Amino acid sequence: MRIFTILLLTIIFSGDLFSQDVVEWRGLNRSGIYPDQNLLKSWPESGPKLLLELDKIGNGYSSPVVYKNTIFVTGRKDTLDVISAYETNGQKKWETPYGRAWARTFPETRCTPTIENNRIYMVSGMGQVVSVDALSGKLLWTVDAQTIFKGEPHRWGISESVAISDKAVFYVTGGEETSVIALNKVDGKLLWKTKSLGGVRAYASSVIIEKAGLKLLLAQTANDLMAINIENGEIVWSFNLVKYHPGETGKGANTNTPLYFDNQIFLTSGYDHPAIMLTLADDGRSVSVKWTNPDFDNHIGGVVKVGNYIFGSNWITNTTGNWICADWNTGKTLYETKWFNKGPIISADGFLYCYEEKSGNLALVRPNPEKFDVISSFKITKGEGPHWAHPAIFDGKLFVRHGESLMVYDLKNKD
User: Fold this and answer.
1) 98-107 in b/e burial notation, b at 16+ Cβ within 10 A?
2) How confident is the model at residue 19 (pLDDT cuts 50, 70, 90)?
3) I need a surface site. Which of 129, 133, 157, 235 has the fewest CB within 10 A?
4) Domain assignment present for 12
5) What percent of the chain has pLDDT over 90?
């Protein structure tokens, strides 16, 4: 591991890096929106100041998270998925293997840790759901869910970052025995399993929403979006996704976490699958289609809602795509623009952070519904492979992972 420290990192990183009780995939409510404010409004040509660089963290496409002044990141080493914990000055605290890595195409880790009350929850590339002590790195429990529940992964493996409630860890198995399971957070014992709706698992991570007193897990298989009562595993409603897919390429490859706001559920996947906006009924027990948009087929980069607009990128081929904006209420495409390539997107302090996946260009962008409005950009040059890992922001720091490298940049506005 090479460590580059700039200035006194113990001072730069002082204070809790994130005040939420839970840290997880794509921030608050898995929305891609981070709460940080007073961030830089533009960047130097070379990008924001580099504070820290970590190497040899293990190969992966997962995002780092920060919890109680510690950086946590997963990576593949040999045939195992490992999680590593680093001090904010770059010193490694511990490293723990937590399961078998995916062994076929794209074997790199995809699971971003979910952390609450000093416990980490994850799933390995081969479907082992685990809990690890965040302070010591001790493996607390492991459940080989893929084997026990006869799970069926899609062709590119498992990409889920597990969701949690106050009692449970949720995991999408796919397959004929069950579609989704809930495990006790304390000991990993089975709390419930849903009936099976059939079909293999998808690549998307789930999210919990609340409506009319119901707490619902929105989970996806290759065929369906399901709303599951988190208390008992009842599938309250399901919505068939695969029937909207126009062809065989990428069929069932549902890739993105549903985005929920004000009784609306936004769904998007690549491969010419149209984006779909669903309206949730007042009692939470059914949905109806509000609109579809054939332009907004986001591949694996996620989307964000800023104001009344949805921003992201779309799929042209597996290696090409454009940046796009649509109206949240009507679904109308407002612009579609080529800027290098498609890729991940997040938002903080009223700005977009767009990270194209092919060459590693990362831009600060105004959320302008009329055009793709780049303010500043620079290029990530460290690391190898596709730039698929979603960036993250904690305490005014931008965390960018590329392969086995992790870079931390200072976004705080000192003016």
Assistant:
1) bbbbbeeeeb
2) very low
3) 133
4) yes
5) 90
If phi > 0 it is left, if psi is from -120 to 50 it is alpha, else beta; for residue 12 that is alpha
Sequential DSSP letters for 172-211: E--SSS-SEEEEETTT--EEEEPPP--S-B-SPPPEEEEE
What pLDDT sits at residue 156? 86
pLDDT digits (tens, 9 = 90+) for 359-394: 999 999 999 999 999 999 999 999 999 999 999 999
- The conformation of residue 10, written as its DSSP 8-state character, comes to H
Contacts of 53 (CB under 8 A, 6+ apart): 2, 3, 4, 90, 382, 405, 406, 407, 408
Tokens representing 90?
Answer: 């770059």
Within 10 angstroms of residue 34's Cβ, the number of other Cβ atoms is 24
Predicted local confidence at residue 256, as pLDDT: 97
Instruction: Give the count of domains, the chain.
Output: 1
Read off φ and ψ for residue 331, nearest 5 degrees. Answer: 80, 0
Whether residue 415 lies inside any domain: the answer is no
Helix (H, G, I), strand (E, B) or coil at 400: strand
In which domain, by residue range, is 311 found? Answer: 3-410
Prediction pTM value? 0.94
Can you tell me which residue has the tokens 């004000």?
262
* DSSP code, position 30: G
User: What is the tens place of the pLDDT at every residue in 296-342?
Assistant: 999 999 999 999 999 999 999 999 999 999 999 999 999 999 999 99
Taking Cα atoms as reference points, which of 307, 314, 298 lies closest to residue 370?
A: 307
Show Cβ contacts of residue 370 under 8 Å, excluding neighbours closer than 6 positions: 334, 335
Q: In this structure, what CATH number is given to the domain that contains residue 238?
A: 2.130.10.10
Of 74, 72, 194, nearest to 128 by C-alpha is: 74
For residue 148, the SS3 value is: helix
